[in-house]
């Protein structure tokens, strides 16, 4: 297995160590330790080692190993005085590498703060904290006013719209990045609609936020019951996993805070995982209020140096609570009392590249080994966790009611197929943006000066561009997906690889007009501006949140009630707690429902329940309007009734026959490459090889399905085929995958094999 041997430089008697390098290779490498460092070297320390023709930084996995027969090269430098990974963290990394069949060095890299296992420094120099910001100072509600003011200065008008889209303020740098020149931006100032200010932008908004004292809430009876139950678990030597299912607004956060308090009181620390830090500033803020300086927030918005500082503070025990996304499950908290996953059903807990670990699985294993409690919270738990709660593997704790006296908001479906709802559709909309019931509800909401949230899980202006005559659809040159028209950027853009081209004027072959259909957030925003000219609208999707803190700024304006309508993709569905939001509208609930993926119904139900849960969290009751062309779909009907249990039992039944999780364990093996025939050949050969392996080693119960083209069969210029492995028992499945990785994991040329165990999606 050892490739590093070139003899020569090593004394025979030298002690060796095994090193994992952050490269996509399944083996570790043996190096010799020079006499001076031999006694100091320990697992978990970083070393610089010769690798191939160059050098790399790796992490020691084991010391005192035998030299390989051909001798070993020498470690060039022992970097650390103390291990960066403690024995406990090394152990959980090894489990992760083993279970997910991932290279150990890549797991070490994922577990460490950025830069510690990188060859080059990746810290981008932060531009100074004082920035020039362009702020809107005049509101132009009507189209006439806009035309009168801007005349033919179209670019300036677009800049104004871009600024509105960003919630009324943006740094000049960001606007320039969107293609607006200084001259155009200066035009806005000259016309008196905007002004330039110098603002000290917080590098880390959490650091700058006043730590509002957490109001000392008296827990409700349900909360007390949940806290008592969890406290009792925490005192046990093996607390196991608990699932806290609490409807939206049931006060799960207070339960989390109390459990962390208990962990601290017993001398242990805590990790709180959230799906995405930038989307949940309120949650983070509440923990900072409750625990002040004990909290280290690990998030990708920090520079590498800041993250390393936060990590070091946890490592030294100066801070006891880590808050972060997925990778914070590896935070160096020791001893560990509790790991909490908020919104445990979120797909973002699974990493979509190697190592493809799921933070929930890693947390459960880590907690078991360290005697800590693993607490999963959600209003709409994943079916995996729900099943585990019912089989008794997890402890189920429920918060069935909202904290406020109000019930969950009433949800109404609007059938988009009904002709009376069609009148509102525009020529390019491919379905109405706003049916009359939704439009009237928004109107009422604005009249009462309350806020509303509108969800459409599709960005851009039109998601489908087609010749009206020959039916040709504009699709990406590199991916087998259609291109989305972005009006502001005047381009057709691929949402998978970023490829863009100018929009066609007419079909090259038929010279016939082009039809734009499939409505995206950009178009809804335009329609809203026309229908509600006086409303302050903010759009939040990938296009308006390109810079570090843009999410945060938009949400902050929402909190200060400078926004009446918050429109966005799924980004706006999570965890937000704005008491003045009384209306939630879903522009098209069917977007995710037709995806060829076994989780499509589950994702749709979760998204609808989550976004519906944003309504009526304050003193006023909430209302939810869901537009759909499939009003009889059970996922939608269950969302109307807030019937999680009903949804789960129907969906579990539907998954039984095809053997999808949680009934059976799944692994997806994807073969990709630039040549279609080589990809199909290799995937067929590997599937056969795997079948042969299973029968020759009698790894019974592992079933191989396929190969078949992936639902997206070309991505970034690479063809993709896959085959599936299913098994009732995770152990033989793991064995098959490890055999496959070690023997066939590195095919020649540009062909690649990716193994995705417990996949979140099969696209
Ligand atoms: P969830 O996460 O379950 O959706 P939150 O934890 O965000 O709910 O709580 C919803 C709202 O209820 C928050 O504004 C919170 O401050 C408030 N709240 C929670 N517990 C209590 C309580 N015991 N008394 C009063 N208000 C509470
Ligand atoms: Zn593409």
Describe what you observe in this structure.
This protein has 6 domains: 2-124, 3-Layer(aba) Sandwich (GIY-YIG endonuclease), CATH 3.40.1440; 130-200, Arc Repressor Mutant, subunit A (Orthogonal Bundle); 221-399, P-loop containing nucleotide triphosphate hydrolases (Rossmann fold); 410-461 and 519-655, Rossmann fold; 464-513, no CATH class; 665-757, 2-Layer Sandwich (Alpha-Beta Plaits). 31% of the residues lie in helices and 23% in strands. It contains 22 helices and 30 strands. Strand 19 and strand 20 (491-493) form a beta hairpin. It is globular and about 85 Å long. Bound molecules: adenosine-5'-diphosphate and zinc ion. Zinc ion is lined by residues 476, 478-479, 494, 496-497, 499.
Which key terms come to mind for this protein?
GIY-YIG endonuclease; 6-stranded parallel beta sheet; binds adenosine-5'-diphosphate; alpha/beta; 7-stranded parallel beta sheet; 31% helix; binds zinc ion
Summarize the structure.
With 763 residues, this protein is an alpha/beta fold.
Write the layout of secondary structure elements.
Elements: E1 16-20, E2 29-32, H1 35-38, E3 46-51, E4 54-65, E5 77-78, H2 87-99, H3 104-111, E6 130-136, H4 143-150, H5 154-165, E7 169-171, H6 172-177, H7 182-190, E8 194-200, H8 205-208, H9 221-235, E9 241-246, H10 252-265, E10 269-273, H11 281-291, E11 295-298, H12 304-315, E12 321-324, E13 336-342, H13 359-370, E14 373-378, H14 383-390, E15 394-399, E16 410-415, H15 436-447, E17 451-455, E18 462-467, E19 484-486, E20 491-493, E21 500-501, E22 514-519, H16 521-531, E23 537-540, H17 550-559, E24 565-568, E25 581-586, H18 600-612, E26 623-628, H19 634-640, H20 644-656, E27 665-673, H21 676-696, E28 702-715, E29 718-727, H22 730-744, E30 752-757
Parallel strand pairs: 9-14, 9-15, 10-12, 10-13, 11-12, 13-14, 16-26, 17-24, 17-25, 23-24, 25-26
Antiparallel strand pairs: 1-2, 1-4, 3-4, 3-5, 6-7, 6-8, 18-22, 19-20, 20-21, 27-29, 27-30, 28-29
């Amino acid at each position: 297995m050892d490739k590093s041997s070139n003899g020569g430089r090593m004394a025979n008697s030298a002690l060796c160590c095994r090193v994992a390098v952050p490269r996509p290779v399944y083996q570790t490498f043996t190096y010799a330790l020079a006499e001076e460092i031999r006694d100091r070297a320990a697992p978990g320390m970083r070393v610089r080692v010769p690798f191939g023709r160059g050098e790399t930084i790796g992490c020691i996995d084991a010391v005192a190993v035998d030299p390989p027969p051909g001798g070993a090269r020498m470690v060039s430098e022992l970097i650390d005085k103390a291990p960066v990974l403690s024995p406990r963290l090394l152990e959980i990394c090894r489990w992760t590498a083993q279970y997910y069949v991932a290279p150990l060095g890549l797991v070490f890299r994922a577990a460490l703060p950025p830069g510690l296992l990188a060859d080059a420094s990746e810290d981008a120099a932060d531009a100074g904290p004082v920035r020039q910001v362009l702020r809107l100072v005049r509101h132009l509600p009507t189209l006439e006013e806009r035309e009168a003011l801007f005349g033919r200065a179209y670019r300036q008008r677009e800049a104004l719209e871009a600024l509105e889209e960003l919630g009324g303020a943006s740094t000049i740098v960001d606007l320039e990045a969107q293609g607006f020149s200084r001259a155009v931006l200066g035009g806005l100032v000259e016309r008196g609609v905007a002004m330039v200010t110098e603002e000290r932008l917080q590098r880390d908004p959490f650091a700058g936020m006043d730590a509002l004292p957490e109001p000392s809430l008296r827990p409700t009876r349900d909360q007390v019951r949940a806290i008592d139950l969890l406290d009792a678990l925490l005192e046990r030597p093996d607390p196991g996993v608990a699932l806290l299912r609490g409807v939206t607004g049931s006060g799960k956060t207070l339960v989390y805070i109390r459990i962390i308090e208990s962990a601290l009181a017993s001398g242990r620390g805590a990790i709180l995982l959230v799906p995405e830090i930038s989307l949940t500033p309120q949650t983070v803020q509440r923990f900072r209020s409750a625990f002040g300086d004990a909290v280290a927030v690990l998030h990708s918005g920090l520079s590498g140096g800041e993250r390393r500082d936060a990590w070091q503070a946890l490592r030294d025990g100066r801070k006891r609570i880590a808050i972060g996304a997925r990778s914070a499950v590896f935070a160096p908290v020791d001893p560990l009392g509790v790991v909490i996953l908020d919104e445990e059903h979120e797909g973002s807990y699974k990493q979509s590249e190697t190592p493809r670990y799921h933070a929930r699985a890693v947390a459960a294993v880590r907690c078991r080994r360290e005697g800590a409690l693993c607490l999963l919270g959600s209003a709409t738990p994943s079916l995996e966790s729900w099943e585990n709660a019912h089989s008794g593997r997890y402890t189920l704790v429920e918060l069935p009611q909202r904290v406020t006296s109000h019930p969950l908001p009433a949800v109404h479906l609007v059938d988009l197929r009904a002709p009376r709802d069609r009148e509102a559709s525009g020529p390019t909309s491919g379905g109405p943006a706003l049916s009359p019931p939704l439009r009237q509800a928004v109107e009422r909401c604005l009249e009462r000066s309350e806020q509303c949230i509108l969800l459409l899980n599709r960005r851009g202006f039109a998601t489908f561009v087609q010749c009206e005559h020959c039916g040709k659809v504009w699709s990406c040159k590199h991916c087998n997906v259609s291109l989305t028209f972005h009006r502001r950027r005047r381009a057709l853009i691929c949402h998978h690889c970023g490829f863009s081209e100018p929009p066609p004027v007419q079909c090259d072959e038929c010279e016939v007009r082009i039809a734009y259909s499939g409505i995206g957030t950009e178009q809804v925003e335009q329609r809203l501006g026309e229908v509600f000219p006086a409303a302050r609208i903010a759009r939040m999707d990938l296009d308006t949140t390109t810079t570090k803190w843009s999410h945060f700024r938009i949400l902050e304006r929402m909190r200060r009630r400078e926004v009446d309508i918050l429109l966005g993709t799924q980004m706006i569905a999570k965890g937000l707690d704005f008491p003045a939001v009384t209306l939630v509208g879903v522009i098209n609930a069917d977007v995710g429902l037709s995806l060829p993926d076994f989780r499509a119904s589950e994702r749709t139900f979760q998204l609808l329940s989550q976004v519906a849960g944003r309504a009526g969290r304050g003193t006023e009751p909430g209302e939810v309007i869901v537009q759909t062309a499939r009003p009889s779909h059970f996922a939608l009907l269950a969302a109307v009734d807030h019937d999680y249990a009903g949804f789960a039992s129907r969906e579990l039944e539907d998954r039984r026959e095809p053997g999808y999780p949680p009934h059976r364990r799944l692994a997806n093996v994807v073969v990709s490459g630039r040549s279609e025939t080589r990809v199909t050949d290799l995937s067929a050969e590997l599937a056969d090889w795997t079948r042969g392996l299973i029968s020759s080693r009698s790894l019974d119960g592992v079933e191989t399905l396929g190969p078949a083209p992936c639902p997206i069969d070309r991505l970034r210029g690479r063809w993709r085929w896959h085959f599936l492995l299913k098994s009732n028992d995770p152990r033989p499945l793991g064995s098959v995958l490890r055999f496959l990785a070690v023997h066939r994991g590195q095919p020649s040329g540009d062909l690649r094999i990716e193994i995705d165990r417990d996949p979140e999606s099969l696209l």
